[in-house]
Amino acid sequence: MRRFGRTLVTAALAVTVVGGSAGWASGDGQTAVTGPPPGTVAWRADTVAGRSLPDPATATPREVAAFFAGLDDAARRELLRSHPLVVGNLDGAPLPLRYEANRIAAAATGEARYASLAAPDRRILAFDPRGRGQVAEVFGDLEHAEHVSVIVPGSDNDAAGYDARRTPHTGPAAMARALRGATDGSTAVVAWIGYTTPVGVGLDAADGRLARAGAARLARFTEGLDAVGAPDPVLFCHSYGSVVCGIAARHTDATDIVAFGSPGMRADTAAALRTGARVWAARGPSDWIADVPNVEFAGIGHGADPTSAAFGARRVPAADVQGHTGYFTPGTQSLAAFATIAKGEAR
After folding, report:
1. Which residue from 17, 51, 262, 269 has the fewest beta carbons nearer than 10 Å?
2. Residue 216: its H or E element
3. DSSP readout, 159-197?
């Protein structure tokens, strides 16, 4: 009888919205974009100043940072011109070089949907046009910030729709702007869509396949921040993004991990995440994520509710949050608490 009950729960999860706000359109079978950036084959075959280039597939971000530190400006710019897609996505490369490389790469696609990413005033830290596209954007001065936060979003996010019009204060970029504003500009915030997210409803959002791929990329991204001297980040993980953060937790040096609107983090307790970070959780009273069964069975479902007392996360007040995406609305308790965490002032 217990097995039959679990089967019913698994079937229910397969048709439950667990990741985003795209409605009842199924998007199963997304192919995760993984591995080194586009152009890696040509990069590996090249040299600069008589030196071999670090292999994007095997070199650590610290090794990449050391390599670029040994180049003069002319050599760096030679690589920028010849390999913008690699330089722009190479964790450990100098931040200004990555910003410029991604402007070049976005413009070079010739696609209208990416044209806005090439604007000279934007700090695009990563851009990969493969599949639906991946993108990371910096708000603030990442090179000199005392505090850094990273927004890890859930379903229905990609580079192609990154600049699409949305409800105010929703979407990774708007969340990042709201958080930076709430910290009075003292924190640099990265909107990170560095993984292939689920689309709509279905097994992609109910299982952990895409989250596992995303977790590996998030862990390397945070390692890259460390390699260029950025402070240890706070991870703000929304919806399916909290599944990514849960899997990545033990592989990052985050000071805090904040899960909100979460279907689960693939762990029974905060301690089971095996991280030194403080773990926080928030869920608003009208967030539909509360209707998602907090189970994990046969790979389906994401486990315990992070806001439950048994999970052991620190609670973030969210009594005035509206819906699944209202956590960064100015004036809410959640945004005020997020800002305190982002500035390292939470106790």
Report:
1. 51
2. helix 209-227
3. STTTTS--STT-SHHHHHHHHHHHTTT-EEEEEEE-S--
